[in-house]
Write a structure and sequence with these properties.
It is an enzyme of class 6 (ligase). This is Phenylalanine--tRNA ligase beta subunit. Keywords: Aminoacyl-tRNA synthetase, ATP-binding, Cytoplasm, Ligase, Magnesium, Metal-binding, Nucleotide-binding, Protein biosynthesis. Strand 21 and strand 22 form a beta hairpin. The protein has about 575 residues and is an alpha+beta fold. It has four domains: about 5-70, 2-Layer Sandwich (Phenylalanyl-tRNA Synthetase, Chain B, domain 1); about 80-285, Phenylalanyl-trna Synthetase, Chain B, domain 3 (Phenylalanyl-tRNA Synthetase, Chain B, domain 3), CATH 3.50.40.10; about 295-330 and about 345-365; about 380-580, Bira Bifunctional Protein, Domain 2 (BirA Bifunctional Protein, domain 2), CATH 3.30.930.10.
Amino acid sequence: MPVVDVDPEELRYLTGHDEKDDEELKSDLFDLGLEFEGLTEDDEFQLEFAPDRLDRLSVEGVARSLRYHYGDDRGVYVPSTNSADWTIEVEDQPEERPYVTGAVVRGLDMSEEALESLIQLQEKLHATMGRKRAKGAIGVHDLTMLKGAAATEGEGKSITYTSADPDEATFVPLDADAEMTPNEVVASHETGQTYGDLVADFDRVPAIYDAIGLFSFPPVINGHRTEVSEDSRDLFIEMTGTDQWTIDRMCAIVCYALEARGGRVERVAVEYADDAPGEYAGRTLERPDFAVRTKTVTHDRIESILGVSLDEREVVDYAERAGLDATPTTGDDAAYEVEIPPYRVDVIHPLDLIDDIGRALGFNSLEPVYPDVSTVGGRHDRSRLEDAARDALVGLGFEDLLNFHMINEAENFERMNLSVPDDGDGSDAGTVGLDEPVTIQEPYSEDYTILRTWALPSIMMVLENNTHRSYPQDLAEIGLAAGLDDSENTGVAEHRTVAGALARTDASYEDAKARLQALADAFDTDLSTPSTTHPTFIDGRAAEVVLDGESVGVVGEIHPTVLVEHDLELPVAAFELRLDGLA
């Protein structure tokens, strides 16, 4: 989950509520779904929140939500924008990174706190929507240090987004005092080494020029000449990426944050050449994109989901307190056309609107109602089995874990010494963990792109993060695993999986087998362990897990390649099996 550092004094200043003490702020933030995780060394709040609310990645966004919560602001707000004085001319840009957007923000009072907030917002957007800059990268520049060329069409000034020879173009990058070529930046500059892989396969690299020369090498690093400081008052924001919608939404979030600091947003014209790659060839876009979207939600569904009776006036009121505008529609069925502000990238379904209305109403104020049903609830047999298995594992000395069910392909396969399965060719059928993964179509983060096919990678990630803690570490998890399966109605086969790992200086196959035997005995199942091979485990030190004659898993000693990949310096023995094998 995203965590943002927020100065409570800044929150009080930006909300206009100096009377709120820290405990009141924490309570109000919790009502909005932002959980207090602790304090930083500078006594700032560490707030964790749902990863879809990217407009809250800055103190300005959090303060905006609080002002709506307090009733100080209502409805959709769209900043006014001045006419475009600057143009981004797009020509000969790399096909691998064809899109650009931008904005100008003037009249800022760039205090130390405002600058730190802007930097944090930039980094958090890079890590989330920008997919670590691969899908979108943000450049913020001191406008006074730019010299615009004459725009090719109309009046005003222009800069150019194009491509450059990585061995010939030169500029002074941030945190440097000498001119360097893009290839030199990638080879020897710390930031260049971090993000150089993003342009490693480009024949010509992305580059942004003004009348003086190169001043930005996206998505890697900006130039020193246009560096933003506390003395900066006017900013030029440019963003490049592989998807126009993504960088436009990122730009909107940044502009709203700067506008909350007193900035005046000014439009920028983005002129794509007639032969530009992508869908906008020959078009001129006015940016930033502050278009307001609309969705329809019915009154019956609002009441059904929230479990309360509301009249039309109350729905409109709660929507406005959530930063939305709801207009009742005409017709037989009561419904609302709801306007959604540009910074709300998370609203994709009417249920998202109902959630906002519910938070404005106050989930804590809802009265519990006993269900009007004639049956008595009880635990599902699978749930009983899962609880019994968990109790048995804890009794065997394991520490119980609860990890995310989502992961990425590198963690699930490559770092476990497995190859990503081919498209269902069946060559890896039966190998634990090698199901074809369920892929998330539009993930918000590169860290969570698929549903995990087994749980052992999650445990190895915990061990990797726990190298500073004492050993032995005996960890276990019972959780969801999934893979594609055409025979299922949904196309996805899900199952509960049991995984355990012993990390200690004397961990061996026999230790893992002994724990597994005790688990099987607890459920009165017959265990046999014929030898097998599995890339995650050492050859000759791995076996199938066969319960009552059915192969349900694997047990063995983790391969040294996997240990090194996870920075582990002592042996690990582990097992994984299907939970239903214990039934």
